[in-house]
UniProtKB/TrEMBL annotation:
GO molecular function, one term: phosphoglycerate dehydrogenase activity
Catalytic reaction equation(s): (R)-2-hydroxyglutarate + NAD(+) = 2-oxoglutarate + NADH + H(+); (2R)-3-phosphoglycerate + NAD(+) = 3-phosphooxypyruvate + NADH + H(+)
Protein's UniProt keywords contain Transmembrane helix: no
SUPFAM superfamilies in UniProt: ACT-like (SSF55021), Formate/glycerate dehydrogenase catalytic domain-like (SSF52283), NAD(P)-binding Rossmann-fold domains (SSF51735), Serine metabolism enzymes domain (SSF143548)
The entry's keywords: Amino-acid biosynthesis, NAD, Oxidoreductase, Serine biosynthesis
Protein name: D-3-phosphoglycerate dehydrogenase
ACT domain segment(s): 455-527
InterPro entries, sorted: ACT-like_dom_sf, ACT_dom, ASB_dom_sf, D-2-hydroxyacid_DH, D-isomer_2_OHA_DH_cat_dom, D-isomer_DH_CS, D-isomer_DH_CS1, D-isomer_DH_NAD-bd
Source organism: Desulforamulus putei DSM 12395
Amino acid sequence: MMKVLVMDGVSEQGLAPLRQQPDIEVVIGEKMTEDQLVEVIGQYDALIVRSATKVTARVIEAAHKLKVIGRAGVGVDNIDRNAATNKGIVVVNAPDGNTIAAAEHTMAMMLALARKVPAACCKLKNGCWDKKAFLGVELRGKTLGIIGLGRIGSAVAKRAQAMEMHIIAYDPYISEDHARKMAVEIVTLQELFKRADFITVHMPKTKETYHMINKEAFEQMKDGVRIINCARGGIVDEAALYEYMVKGKVAGAALDVFETEPCTDSPLLQLENFIATPHLGASTQEAQINVAVDVAEEIVAALRGELVKNAVNMPSMSPKLLAKIRPFLDLAEKLGTFQAQMLNGRIQKVEVIYSGELAKYDVNPITTILLKGLLDPILQENVNFVNATLVARNRGITVVQTTKENGEDYHNLITVHVYTDKGKRLLAGTLFQGNDPRIVNIDGFRINAATTGHMLVVPHIDKPGIVGKVGTIVGDKNINIGGMQVGRVELGGKAIMVMMVDNIVPQDALEEMTKIDGVLEVKMVSL
């Protein structure tokens, strides 16, 4: 009999797929400390959690029988995925179950903003019947700007179209053809700011999207714009939002997520035209059941040794093939993640070339993992080892995979060309002795860089003084330089500098570097 421990009040209705299995026992656990969970986890084959239970490396180390960990929801930050992967434990989540809930909450926020529902309700409950103070606006005919056209953004677009709104969207990682099929106009972020009457955010929180909606963005917007964020806290600069609401530039805002949660003391909460909810985007009865059902079905499949759709930490492949290509999986994901941070423009095509001994094996799983590394950091939707190829296809990205047994200068080599509407990037990596993953080529320049840590990548003209000036700016920010190398093809031509640093270099310093004579571009890459 296999045993599944269910924590955090996961919906009982959603556990039906597990309870229907005659050889699976479901145990509902009470709230536990880490020590208590360590003490009992050894007797279970599977674990299901929401966000409260922390599945740490200690817990996983004590999980002698555990085969799969399920997260009834999307985020898996409370699960140590590296520890799980190292122990061969599959981690699955349920990324689709809350799509409708999040989209409907966005629409609720937008309608509440348009008709000033919360403020009118509050005033009436306080004994004041005041019709004149709450003159609203209609959604029909208004322009809705959607930042991020993934699963939830697309669902919002569909519902807003039913309200007869005109939809424009900014999403650098979706094809214009795909957007046209949805009757959505793809625009630049700056154009969206200028044209939209309502702006809603559906992007992941990354270093690129952090404070994406800031003072500069507000200055570009229409007078009377309304802002909604039901995605991730921190994408909207809350201090800047407060300033522009007080000025009257922003007619109203509705946030379900905050940079720091719980949030009970923000000055925004004192504004009558500000609507707040305590991170309720996925909080519907249906969504809680849906995510529980989805993860329960995944648990059953994993325990049966079958394919799981939403594995977030490992691919589905035969143990024999996995043993042969395992050393290249981490390299491939790092190459994808590196490329994601180097790109300019909308991805159109990804070409992966496998050279050397690798050409003898089935490299499809490696390509899938590379796509996961490329797309997951930049998309709102969950990208994993199973759905990465499908996500790329749905976004109009062509994926080409080729092999050649001639490994050129390396026993094995993975070369990745990513084509965008603004150009092409090349990145190549290999394994040195002892399966040490290294990046050996960036845009045609030979290099030898590790695949961990933080690094500045600076294409430049090969002339004296540039390396020193970049280093000085880094030092002025009190950031230590761990190493540096330069790749070049010819003296005085183009070159590339890779500088290893101990911390992420702030944006203002990166902008200062771009002003150095001879510097062509500056990219901050973290692996």
